[in-house]
Amino acid sequence: MLAGAMTTDAIEIKPATAVDAEGISCMVIRALRETNPQDYAPEIIDALVSAFSPERIASLIASRQVYVAIAHGMIIGTASLQGSVVRTVFVDPDHQGKGIGARLMDVVESLARARSTTTLSVPSSLTAPSRNIAQQSHSRYVAQDYLRKGLEEIVVFRDAEDRTHGHGARD
């Protein structure tokens, strides 16, 4: 392995606590500023940044199941589940493309299965890494044919009965 390289085995995935809010906020803001400019105009990035303040993240942690990926004591990824919607999937730009998002999605999907959720949706920006993460999952993701305010909805089918229906609930 190259010096400085890290396997996903060296990463801990755990439920977030209020103590993690500052680290999540910093990582999400960095990802928004470095990864998402191709998806959104600068004023939208600024609005998104303000929506992910440490105080707002602490509020989200209190209202939904939020997970963090930690390596070397640093938060390098996050994902959360709110009902049947996967929210706030971000991976630090330096760690994107290394399977961390997929590991976070596995944890969120396991939680959904434990709650007997059969369908998950993953709202994401048009070119977001979260879309790639979703598509790399062992589950079937189907992009819907419509856009809402710059977001594309991806539907995840969770059980054999749903998977037999082709391209989604809208069929």
Q: What can you tell me about this protein's structure?
A:
There is one protein chain. This protein has a single domain (8-163), classed as 3-Layer(aba) Sandwich (Aminopeptidase). Strands 1-2-3-4 form a 4-stranded antiparallel beta sheet, sandwiched between helices. Strands 5, 6, 7 and 8 form a 4-stranded antiparallel beta sheet that branches. It is globular. Helix content is 36%, strand content 28%. It has helices at residues 21-35, 42-51, 54-63, 100-114, 129-136, 160-163; strands spanning 12-15, 65-71, 74-82, 85-91, 119-121, 124-125, 140-148, 151-157. The protein is an alpha+beta fold and 171 residues long. It contains 6 helices and 8 strands; from the N terminus they run E-H-H-H-E-E-E-H-E-E-H-E-E-H.
Give the gist of this structure.
The chain is of the alpha+beta class and about 170 residues long. About 35% of the residues lie in helices and about 30% in strands.
Features:
single chain, 171 residues, alpha+beta, Aminopeptidase, four-stranded antiparallel sheet, 6 helices, 8 strands, disordered N terminus, disordered C terminus
Could you outline the blueprint of secondary structure elements for this entry?
Layout: E1 12-15, H1 21-35, H2 42-51, H3 54-63, E2 65-71, E3 74-82, E4 85-91, H4 100-114, E5 119-121, E6 124-125, H5 129-136, E7 140-148, E8 151-157, H6 160-163
Antiparallel strand pairs: 1-2, 2-3, 3-4, 5-8, 6-8, 7-8
The CATH topology turns out to be: Aminopeptidase
Fraction of residues in helices?
Answer: 25-40%
Q: Please report the number of helical segments.
A: 6
Strand coverage percent: 25-35%
